[in-house]
Amino acid sequence: MGATETQRHGEEDAFTRKAARMLAGQFIATVGMIVYAAVTLSAQWRVTTNRVPTTPDGKPNYGAPAPRMPDGTTPDLSGIWDVERRPCIEATSPFGCSADTLDGIPVGFIDITTGAADSPPMQPWAEALVKQHRENGWRDDPNLRCLPHAPPRMWANFVMQKVIHTSDSVTILDEYMSQYRQIFLDGRALPKDPEPIFTGYSVGKWEGDTLVIETIGIKGNWFDPEGHPLTEQARLIERIRRVDYGNLHIEVTVDDPKAYTRPWTRIIRLRLVLNADLLEYICNENEKDRQIIDTVR
Question: Using CA atoms, how far apart are residues 103 and 268, in angstroms rounded to an integer?
């Protein structure tokens, strides 16, 4: 998404955008989507973002240069970020449209390959598994058991994320299940034989203005509701670049020889959200997906 389009979207009050996104709060479980809890307008936490660059007419300048860390050279990735969206079109959307999609569908939320030049080069067993998931209505999606997301799925989701950037680490806070991810910049090596965890083990280093993150030790999971698999052999390389004040680009390369015949890459784009902060979303609270799914098996 270019700066002009991002600016147009960003000029909406974040309070209104967030409420519209979460208000009705339900995707149907039988098509493999998670049920989102309703959030009322009064529940949104109103805040004011400080040090926002502005245009001559006083509007936020999302195309202004990216802010820098105290060293004056390293880009500052901090902020509240929301993935780019595309309009939901009832006639072509595989799951239809609802109040959840008033602000559009996150690119990559349903299918991580959305917008990519080609599909992931899956091993035969992985391709058969994705087909099986589709035929079963995606009933085995870990989302429906309120399990944490793997890193690529965290980026392309309906909820916002908060990036906290220091000289030694980048911490990502996710509204979904209040999960978090740590990326260490202090020079430590990746563990040799890690116990797999949902978000894996991540270290990063700067190459110019791009933060290059390497992640291993991810517990087997899904990339997306489509069911593209992620195995414990996966090694992820993420190249994060704050192209300007309002836009964050993430190039994700997946090297998982157990599930894919070769590494593959896709781009995820996020936009900065002003005047808002995270709200917790605990999936287990009032969760009814499993009950619905069990009745239609």
Answer: 17
